[in-house]
Amino acid sequence: MSSTISQPTATPPRSWPFEEAQKVAQRLAASGKTSALFETGYGPSGLPHIGTFGEVARTSWVRRAFTELTGLPSKLIAFSDDMDGLRKVPDNVPNKEMLAQYLGKPLTRIPDPFGTHDSFGAHNNARLQAFLDSFGFEYEFASSTQYYAEGRFDAALLSILAKHDEIVAVIKPTLGAERQATYSPFLPVHPKTGVVMQVRIDELRPQAGSIVWTDPDSGERFETPVTGGAVKCQWKADWAMRWHALGVDYEMSGKDLIDSVRLSGRICRILGSEPPTGFTYELFLDEQAQKISKSKGNGLSVEEWLRYAPPESLGQFMFNQPQRAKRLYFDVIPKAVDEYLANALKAHAQAAHERPANPAWHIHDGRVPQEAHSPLSFAMLLNLASVVNAENPEILWGFIRRYNAQATPRDMPFLARLVEYALAYYRDFVRPAKQYRQPDAMERAALSELADNLRALPADASAEDIQNVIYEVGKRHPFAELRAWFGCLYQVLLGQQEGPRFGQFVALYGIAETVTLIEQALARPASAA
């Protein structure tokens, strides 16, 4: 069993999960509740995507901080709105023609286009749970279809029926003229076709607990109970109804739902409950700065991220500044890996009361493994793989052992994982993008002098001594700033715009090998750059 570091904290650390947890603690103190319910919502019309993971991860961190602050029990519900009618066929699923025949029906009443589950909703729910389970999240899965059918929402639905007109008055001003004329919080499920109907409600019958409506195609009139899963609420009302019925204390949501949160909060109060404490996070953007979408499948999936980096790095990406919009594409992975490595290393040196302010503490649920470290950054491994055109781990390990004679995959398992990830990332992203440039006359002179100075160093010179030589050479030549000198090293020698701390790279790659690299670059014909 791996050794870990863990501890309680007496005072709230300065990190956003603890700030949010403090709000939940204050809410419970005001209400007299002795346990907290956290919720995350999921619309399973498309495959689960990385944004869904982010919401569950972030909510879990707030819940963990709440436990640390108060010691009170809590629960996290991952709620799937799988009773929602399918509005359009997602872009990234098979058998689109088959799905198109079921538009309007609840996702749990539509055949699975993948052919693995009882319904499309069940398939996507299973996908959601599988990747949440793979990260070790503690949660209780909840199905909208099941909750409606089992009557868990019946009392709340009857309250909506009793306060129907008051709720409609809240929503109507936000709608266009056509929808204003037909809006009701209730969407009856057609008893014959199974379609979730968006129709005008002809009559409310609170005493009977039912609504009366007319099929616009057949003209047939139906009386439908609002209980037992015979209706589905429109989503703003549904969100409020869920908060009220379950007693939700905390739920996050994206910036695009600010108005919906406000409206659902008003409905929740009409039903007699205080809406949950909330947190608005910014949206993730794809390579073209467009919002990622589970139906489009743009941006990164969890599976894609984990092909190139450890799961801890994905946690680090999600932890950073959740109220700032961030591009979620392949080029963010190396930075996230190295930020995680830096925080994990820092955690081992921190005092117990300081660790809860560290992202690694949250990522590891308060217990940062001792083996979660690497003597080399991910960026360094990528650059080494790039220079030697590595095709297998053994090539990199040969250089790693030169830098650290005790380094072996068995003794440094986390580094071994990073080596595998770095090779995959190098093959798919670094190698295709490599583009060397020719040095100008001034840069050529500086590179030639650097080669001469490196030759004069002992073979076992330290990374710091090598870095000092590199600095001194750069200072002796008329670069506008030292950053331009290092840009020259990266672009001319490595074929990329950015790179590692060069002294450490030379110590890892080898002084003689670096001299050869410089000589080859200076001899490279212009047509090869």
Describe this structure in words.
This protein has 529 residues and is α/β, with parallel strands linked by helices. It folds into 3 domains: 4-284, Rossmann fold (3-Layer(aba) Sandwich), CATH 3.40.50; 378-433; 441-528, Arc Repressor Mutant, subunit A. The chain is 48% helix and 11% strand. A hairpin with a 4-residue loop joins strand 6 (201-205) and strand 7. The two termini are 51 Å apart. The model is unreliable at 1-10 (pLDDT under 50).
Q: Tell the overall outline.
A: elongated
Q: Quickly count the helices.
A: 22
Q: Cα-atom Rg, whole angstroms?
A: 29 Å
**Span between N and C termini?**
51 Å
**What's the CATH H-level superfamily name of the largest domain?**
HUPs
Strand arrangement in the largest pleated sheet: 4-3-2-10-11
Total E-strand runs: 14
Strand fraction equals 5-15%
Instruction: List low-confidence stretches.
Output: 1-10
CATH topology of the largest domain: Rossmann fold
Tell me the count of domains: 3
The average pLDDT score comes to: 91
Main sheet overview: 5 strands, parallel
Helices and strands: which structural class? alpha/beta
Proportion of helical residues: 40-55%
